[in-house]
Amino acid sequence: MPDLPFDATDPRLAAAAWSRIAEPPDAAAGALVENLGAVEALGWLTSVAGGRASAGAQDWERAVAGWAPRLENLDIRRELDTLHRLGGHLLLPGDPGWPAALDDLGVERPHALWVRGGAVTGTRAVAVVGARAATTYGQTMAAELGTGLAEAGVTVVSGGAYGIDAAAHRGALTVDGVTTAVLAGGVDRLYPVGNTRLLNAVAASGAVVSEVPPGSVPSRNRFLARNRLIAALGAATVVVEAAWRSGALSTAARAADLSRPVGAVPGPVTSMASAGCHRLMREQGAVCVTDVAEVLELAGAAGEHLTTPDRPAPPGLLDGLDPVARRVLDALPARGSAPVANVARAAGLPPAEVRAALGNLELEGRARRTGSAWARPR
């Protein structure tokens, strides 16, 4: 195995090289780099691949067998030159501007991000995904969500594909909002080609990013792999339209794995294009969302309440409450009202405790009585 033609002791070059060597998501490569650092990990790999050291355990031998072929003719400076010609930049974990949300992926975190544009996300982001073969209804809903989220100062994250992704990006762009597209291939190969103009506009607004270097071809495996990045970047993931076996459902599954809330936009029960959304709500606990306000409420459940960046965050819905009151208020419907029996069932508490908690919440202005039912304050 020949020595590498670039300075493998340069941490940035080493990290960039790992994004070429390891096919994402590669937990073994992630663990190796996390424990040794990109430079030491690359040095170990070249030593083992060159026969100067032993890989040790059988699992590591198998991993090295997968990485070693990509060391041949590897000169990561070529990819970096391509990126710089495009006006892009490389982001590594820990760099200013690195999206800390990606760190939740653990050993499946990208080794680097290849970026065209500016910031990958702002302080708040929501992923909006769905079918490529979208209906007019789905595209309208995605565009409205993209517009409303952008107006609220939220970065709209999607995959740049036809259909729902494109509609969400366009919705954000119509109000000069910030949107980010996560690609499955290199940022030098804007894909799909029919969305080239849109993706250039996305790069001018926010960013077009990839975890694989320029020259990388989008493949089915890479589409599935990049879905974890979309899910991680968003404080919540919203599926606007998805068939029974849609790739967008994998994004929702990854979001749920990361304890991110998942929302689904309902469609006509006769529409196969919405069958996946209905499945998410019925089988996997996705929240039904129908407008921007509900998406913002959903995303707020993941952490800070979403507000414009120049205002302090207001108190959260459940802040300052004892455990029983929190469960009761959380059990009240976001819209409409419910009788005590329904609230008790949703909260999993005795009706007597629910009545007492609702009385105290009413005194604090955090619940209101509407006839024989109860509701959240207007």
From TrEMBL:
Gene3D superfamilies reported in the protein's UniProt record: 3.40.50.450, Winged helix-like DNA-binding domain superfamily/Winged helix DNA-binding domain
Pfam families: DNA_processg_A (PF02481), WHD_DprA (PF17782)
Residues that span the membrane, as ranges: none
Protein family per UniProt: Belongs to the DprA/Smf family.
Protein name: DNA-processing protein DprA
Superkingdom per UniProt: Bacteria
Species of origin: Georgenia daeguensis
Domain DprA winged helix: from-to ranges: 313-369
Residue ranges of every copy of the Smf/DprA SLOG domain listed in the record: 90-298
